[in-house]
Amino acid sequence: MNFLSLDVGSTCCKCQLFSESGEILAYKSEEYPLIGREGEEYVDIEGIFARVKEMMRFASAKGGFSSMCISTFGESFVLLDKNDKAVFLPMLYTDPRGAAEAEEILQKFGAEELFSRVGVLPQSMFSLSKLLWIRRHAPEAFSAADKLLLICDYLGYMLTGERAIDYGLATRTGAFHVGKRAFDGEMLSAFGIDVSLFSKPVPTGSVVGKVRRAVLEECGVAGEVTLVLGSHDQICSALGAGAVRAGDAVDGLGTVECMTAIFDKKPTDARMGLQGYPCVPYAVDGLYCTYMFNYSNGSLVNWFKNRLLHGYKGEEKDFFSYIEKEMSASPTGILTLPYFAGAATPYQNIGAKGAVIGLTLAASDADVYKSILEGTAMEMRLNAETVKRYGIRIRSAIATGGGANSKKWLQLKADIQDIPVKTLRSSEGGLCGCAMLQAVAAGRAKDLAEAAAVFARYKDEFLPDAAMHAAYEGQYKKYKKLYKTIKELTDERV
């Protein structure tokens, strides 16, 4: 029995074919463009489905599969009419449309009640805010809409004819009652929206149904294929990294850093939502997760490498070999505030500015580079300390993404954050998570913890050094004061 896992992004689709023993049999990745209409950009929903079918065709030729599962990005949705024709294409989560509507939602219900019910506070990114924008600015499309489908349940509907969405992605709509595990009919009714517009919420890993014979024939797939319900890409990535217990966390070190932390008690304090931390039902029954962000992570490293050093690498094979070879073992004493693209959690200030403080003529390029790594590690420590107020404790982390290739960065994170950090055999954690969900659905594993033992395989582990952790304490205390200080200096209203 083979499992086909797919990870669908806004401009790229990836797939891996797994054996039931956890071996990776094949991999494929394809990019596709966004659609431009009247000066705005939209997700090419039909193009995505075409790529999914290409992936199915590819996997069939590489050994076949009996089930499949899809991980997707969140928030974006397509509106279909009764004939399943798209009447409004998916807006990107970065699209600012819906900001005024988000404020109206907040004013109508209040932060305390909203966070208690739907686990998030309104933002323009969430589906409900954008749906209200469509009703106001594209009333014909809103009136014609018969179904609202996020990317995952859209693909599931096209593959099987069944409409199902998991609890994790449902939370990204901003209209899902986390406690009741259902779309909030009372809240939707207050805005004149019929709850039947949304798909049926069910647990992550549920069986959606059999893939339609016409689709299988088009893709050259023999036999029957079961579609297992995937989730938000952040959840699948965390699952594929083996995060199945409270206290586990997965640190995605990409252009943006996102740490997904797992916990077992639903917080009720709305300050958590005001600081940007959602409360999302996790793939493991009884657990929740939240997301901690730093907008300037890999992007900040690339800025330093390309804009300031212009890619200089000395006599080494690449920039990172050069710069990390020159790094000192001790703390730099240079403070880098990594808000070069604004501050995410916990400050939620897109206008925040970054800074590098403490430079002298003795500072080298490697010192400044290391201070960037120190600053990003301190930022995640700040986030981890902040969520402790809400009963969330991070005991260990699994690093994924491009930054996970730097052993020195990961050792810094372990030392500064005082937690062990591990890496995976493959950076495609989301695809592994989808394979785990299929293994449980097929009865090849009794639960996700057992599936993790087969599919989530680790490469390196970095343990915190007590002496280095103590050496960074003074620098970290200063770091925590930086945001307020820099804000006062750069606030244009002063």
UniProtKB/TrEMBL annotation:
Keywords: Kinase, Transferase. GO terms for biological process: carbohydrate metabolic process. Residues 4-240 form the Carbohydrate kinase FGGY N-terminal domain. It comes from the Bacteria. InterPro entries: ATPase_NBD, Carb_kinase_FGGY, Carb_kinase_FGGY_CS, FGGY_C, FGGY_Carb_Kinase, FGGY_N. Residues 254-442 form the Carbohydrate kinase FGGY C-terminal domain. One of its GO terms (molecular function) is phosphotransferase activity, alcohol group as acceptor. Coiled coil: none annotated. Belongs to the FGGY kinase family. PANTHER family: SUGAR KINASE. This is Carbohydrate kinase. It comes from Candidatus Borkfalkia avistercoris. The lineage of its organism: Bacteria, Bacillati, Bacillota, Clostridia, Christensenellales.
